[in-house]
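step 4 of 6: structure.
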Amino acid sequence: MSAAVPTNDGLGRPAGAGLEVLRGLRRDTWTLALWGLFLALLVVAKLVAPGYGATELTSLAIGSLPIAFAAVAQAIVVISGGIDLSIGAMMALTSVVAATQMKGASPEFSIVVVLGVLLLGLLVGAINGLLIVASRVPDIVVTLAMSYVWAGAALLVLNTPGGGAADWLQALISGSLVIDYLPRALVVLIVFAGLVWLPLRRSRLGLSLYAIGSSPLAAFRGGVDVQRTKVFAYALTGLFSAAGGLTLTASTGIGTPIPGPYTLLAVAAVVLGGVSLAGGRGGILGPIVAVFILSLVRTDLTFIGVDPNLSTVVQGVIMVGVVMIGAFVTLRRRTA
Amino acid sequence: MTSAPGALQGGARDGRRAAAIRRIFRDRPLLPLLVLLGLLIGSLQVAQPGMLGPAWASSTIRFAVPLAILAASQTLTMLTGGIDLSVATVASMSAYIVFTQTPAQGPWVAVAIALVAALVVGLVNGVGVGVFRVHPLVMTIGMSLVVLGLITVYQRIMVASGSRIPPEVAWLGSGTSFGVIPNSLFLFIPLAAVLLFILRRTGFGRLLYAVGDNEAAARLSGVRVWQVLVALYVLSGLLAGIAGVVYGGLTNTATAALADGLLLPSVAAAVIGGTSIFGGRGGYEGSIVGAVILTVLTTLLTVLQMPEPVRVILFGAIILVVASAYSRITGET
């Protein structure tokens, strides 16, 4: 049957070189605008609090790390045309598994634990994907139901917050590297996400992710195994959720079985980061910048002396506002 | 009824019977749900003989009503292919406003303020989704952040004035008349009737299905989609506000996170009830049964004395199994 399917050459090739440049420019405009916003917020922080420096940057990076991993996890699955509402629960599960296994363990064994937890994330995510493919129930429903299952499993592992984290793991994300202004947490994020995402993006599988997100039917006709790619996308989401769970354990020193607000924050960051919820468009850098923007807004507002609770309001407004502006701009460009 | 030409083999006959059953279920989507509900109630009887009775029914209904009202928000928005993830925060807000405004304003004004606030949140959602074309997930998550922040600030302002549960609200949420009839039914039955009427008999209801089925087609046939969406999200916010008042009366507490635990069940109730998350298909009657099923399920898992983690896991697994079985049986996805 594969004889009739043409080779995949045309899948990633642009319809026209000029169009591709234009599209790339537009995509980059969004990310560039996000970087601009981020830098502006940093400048504001520096202006309002002249003492703002390396230490604050480091704590910003550590604080944002779990959300950043959650955002990458969500971005991958959204690019492939799905959505995962169980990310927070998967993070809780992997976090408590890591915390219980690492408590009192030798550094050597805790390396095994970290690898094992990442594998667990892959497995848990793959189960989500398999269930979606097998049940033919919409992604959002399956992952919603599975969020209960993983949250329950987390409670099963650890009923109350506890456990421990290996010293090297905690050291891995605290402090800075080489120069004061390069937080280790940021390096960990970039290295981990880069090692997984960059080779993938260039590969056939990565292309398939975008293809099934863009149009499952076209991807299928182009010879992509849609179901396998979907399972793979969810497995990757599980992997990044596990990384998020590990950083939760590492930054707090314990495991907490109750899922944090990471799932919905991740959806927000993904959209803010220029990934279309319709699938097939975007990358992981935008969502990461978006996470830092949302965290930095909070810091800035605290410096200015705004009630920290109001900063939640501002976060929400920014999220909605930026998306509105984005929609407005695309709308005008389309009609122009 | 009429036999097909040619000899029927056993397998083919079975297939035909399955198709017939499927057709019955497709024409009457409520049937499998009611069967499931019956099974759950049956297992409850087996698990704890003598538990069933007027008192049990009364308490089940009291807990199902707020969930069913929130599920109405989800059902209506899901019919247009949207979703409203701000309902839980709006419900908590509304309960909190009622509780804190009662000492100064009296219960009726307090409830009015709460519902107006809920309506305003819905209006903002509607303008965002309908006019600015923001994805409903993003719009409603964003709004729930905004509302959450505002309640927390409000909480700090109001901390001195104290809060009081108005007896009228407690009566509505947790009281019963004639011994067993939950008072919340006096609110819920007319409300549900109006919603069912809107969905089945009015132009607005039909527009919701039309927009969810094919928005472009609806627009081309002259539907002002943005107006439909604004009205829809206003209604959704208002329903969430009402649910919050009832739930506050039921639990006798008001915090910023009061109704958070109802968000996912409200989506689940609508999904179990057969409303498609992609829009255009479903109805409120299914969601009501879905809300009752989830409530009975929670009772059953509690009665079975399972540890909490297992209960949570089973809750999720059963939602998944039901949603999957439902889509298999009715042949819908």
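step 5 of 6: annotate
 - Residues 1-8 of chain B have pLDDT under 50 and may be disordered.
 - Residues 225-251 of chain B form the longest helix (27 residues).
step 6 of 6: archive
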